[in-house]
Every structure is written in C-alpha cells, then in structure tokens.
Amino acid sequence: QEDDVLHYLIAKYSWKHPLLFLDIWGRPLVTLLFSIPAQVSLGLTRFLSSLISLIVVYLTTYLAQIVLKKNEVRLVIPFLVFQPFYFLLSFSILTELIFSLIFILWLIFVYKKRYTLATLFIALTPLARPEGFFFIILWAFIILFSSNLLVFARIFLIVMSGIVVILWNTAGFLISSDPLWLLHSFPWGGQQAYYGSGSAFYYILLLPIITGIGAFPFFMYGLFHLIRSKKFLLPGIFIFFLLLHTMLWTFGLFRSAGFLRYFVCISPAIAIICVVGYKRIIDVINLKVKNATLC
Q: How far apart are CA 106 and CA 291, in angstroms?
C-alpha cells in the first residue's frame, strides 16, 4: 500500500530532516521506531514490523493468563494471528500495528490495576494513531468514575494522560510559534468526506471479515457473554471503537477511508473475546452431549 511506503520514506529521511519526527501524518512514535532499520532497507523495516507483531502475540497471551483460564490461553494465538488484517499488517509499515502494541500494554496494566503505568501508555497512543486522542477521553471517563481511586489520584491520572499531547504541541510551538500547532497542523482539519463516506451499518455488516469468518460466531457469543456477565471492559472497548469509526465513516470525518484494517488497533481484545465465546460454546455442547449420554 502507498501508506506503507510513505511511512518508510518518512522514517528513512527523518535523520536528515528531524522535523519529520513531529510529523502528524507520519506519527512520531511510528517514525521513531522505524527510523533505525529504515536507514538500512525496506526489508529490514518490514522485519521489525513482523517482530512487533510477534511481541503483540506474546503480550496478548500474557494478558490472556490474567483474563482467561490457564487451558484457554493458547487459543488466543490463532484467534489473533488469523484475523485477516492482523496477518496482512504484520508485514507492513503501518500505524495500526504500533497502536496495538501500546494498546495491549495499556490493557495489561489496567487489568493488573497499575493505573499510573496504564496512563503512561494511553498517553502515548496519539503518537501512533489519531484514535489515541479518543482513547485518552475514554480513559479519562473511566478514571473519573472509578470508585477505587482517591480524588487526587483521579486528577493526577487525567492530567498525566494528556501530558504527551501537550509536549508534542509544545515542540510544534517551538518551531512554528503557533500555540495551537497540533490543532492547526492536522492534515484533515475542517474537511469532510475527503475519501467519501458510507452507511452507518458499514462496519457492522463487515464484522465477519474483520474478525475472520470462522471466528465471527465465537466473537459474537463471547461479546454477549461478557456483557451478560457484567465484564464490561473488553466489550466496552470494542463497542467504543466500532461506534467511533462508524461515526467517522458515516459523516466523513478525520479523512476516514473506511478501512477494515483500523480494527487491528484493538485486535488483541477481539482475540480474547473470541476465545471466551469459543469456550462457552464448547462448554454448552459438552454439557448437552453429557446429558444426552446420561439419558
């Protein structure tokens, strides 16, 4: 894809033109991570991307040990790796995979109740993808209504979640003298339907392609089971992400192109939800077989 090559070129020439490290479309964290291998070759840069995809797989299995039963953990790997767009992007220099790395680290620390570290990683998300700005807002609401945190701790974490964006804007201010550099430099500012727009049901109808057709029934069952069990974090994140991109594509905002690959950003959560559904369906089948045998 053209985006793949352009990210490579931005990373390659960032050493000669350091302002590229602040480039909003290129994404500072993506440019920084790929800048070293990009000095050697495109192939080595793609190799790093593949390595990052393996790290995300490992971290997802680590999270699964917290969320799932021990014998279910290994099932996460195929449900993640064989998500169609996760597999394709594991060889590409695109931003979604970097976002998924930060996302899974954030999730791990949320589940371990290490909220300061979780906030640190959520603060980094805008440096990888524009969805990061919305995730900061989501995290701020989660913190704000958390009964486990003192008021001072809530205020501290909310401020901390925006500190990276403030530093990014400050760096832009130093080179442009524009105090709102980040806002004014957004490449999609003020433009609607730049790449078109579509139905509000677009992503919903294409969910089987996002999760993988074979995994889709397990995903849906897992989603409803988690909601019914009042385990809202993973389904809540998915629904939030789905509604966000549905809104952006329906109204043609943020130069949304309607790509299905956007969901690679939260692919670890999708994989774990699939495992939950798979295990519940297998348990129901085993129970019915057992009852039938006893009869």
A: 42
Other Cβ atoms less than 10 A from the Cβ of 119: the count is 25
Those residues whose C-beta lies under 8 Å from the C-beta of residue 68, and which sit 6 or more positions away, are: 76, 272, 275, 276, 279
**What does the pLDDT look like over 168-197, one tens digit per residue?**
999 999 999 999 999 888 876 555 556 678
Q: Residue 172: what residue type? A: G
Which pair of structure tokens corresponds to residue 248? 């952006």
Distance CA 245, CA 249 (A): 6
pTM over 0.85: yes
Query: Tokens 């294409």 map to which residue?
Result: 206
CB 89 within 8 A of CB 53: yes
Q: Confidence band (pLDDT; 50, 70, 90) for 198?
A: confident
In the structure, how many helices (H) and strands (E) does the chain have? 16, 0
| Token output for 145 | 């209504």
3-state DSSP helix/strand/coil % of the chain, to nearest 5: 75, 0, 25
